[in-house]
Amino acid sequence: MPTPSMEDYIEQIFLLIENKGYARVSDIAEALEVHPSSVTKMVQKLDRDSYLIYEKYRGLILTPKGKKIGKRLVERHDLLESFLRIIGVKEENIYEDVEGIEHHLSWNSIERIGDLVQLFEEQPNLIAELKLVQVRNEEEAADKEPI
C-alpha cells in the first residue's frame, strides 16, 4: 500500500496523464510545489514498487497497478469534495480540507461517505433540510454571543 506521499504523486501523475496525455518531472514538481529532484527520487521509488515505468529523459507511464490506484485516489478526492460541498463547507476551504483529511480516512469511511453523498443526491430534499438546520444553528449561536 502506498504511503500518503506516494498517493499524492500517483494521484497527480494520473491527473496529468488524463489531462495532458503525459506527465513530466517538471509538471509534477510544479503541481505538487516540490523540487524536481524530489520528484525524481519519488518517481524512481514508484518505479521500483511497480506503480509506474520511468526512463530518464523519456518520461513515465503508469502501470495497470498505478492507473488503478490513481483512478481510485482521484475518485476519493472528488467524493470528499462533493461531500464537503453538500454539507455546506465554504468553497474556499474545500480543497485544503480534502487535502488535510483524505489520507487519514480508511477506505471503509470513504465508502460510507460515498453512501451518504449518494443518499443526498437521490433525495435533494435532505440537502434543503440540512441547510435549514444549519441556518437555525447559526442563528442560535449568534443569539448566544455576548453583546
From TrEMBL:
* One of the Pfam families matching this protein, by short name: Fe_dep_repr_C
* UniProt keyword annotations, A-Z: Activator, Cytoplasm, DNA-binding, Manganese, Metal-binding, Repressor, Transcription, Transcription regulation
Residues recorded as binding Mn(2+) 1, renumbered to this chain, are D8, E99, E102, H103
Summarize the activity regulation. Answer: DNA binding is strongly activated by Mn(2+).
Name the source organism: Lederbergia citrea
All copies of the HTH dtxR-type domain together span 1-63
Annotated residues that bind Mn(2+) 2 are located at E11, H77, E99, E102
Q: Which InterPro entries match?
A: DtxR_MntR_Metal-Reg (IPR050536), Fe_dep_repressor (IPR001367), Fe_dep_repressor_sf (IPR036421), HTH_DTXR (IPR022687), HTH_tscrpt_reg_MntR (IPR022897), Iron_dep_repressor (IPR022689), WH-like_DNA-bd_sf (IPR036388), WH_DNA-bd_sf (IPR036390)
Which cellular components does GO assign to this protein?
A: cytoplasm
Known function: Central regulator of manganese homeostasis.
Assembly and partners? Answer: Homodimer.
Name a single GO biological process: intracellular manganese ion homeostasis
Write down the superkingdom of origin: Bacteria
**Where does the UniProt annotation locate this protein?**
Cytoplasm
SMART domains assigned: HTH_DTXR
Output one GO MF annotation. DNA binding
Q: What is this protein called?
A: HTH-type transcriptional regulator MntR
The record's similarity note reads: Belongs to the DtxR/MntR family.
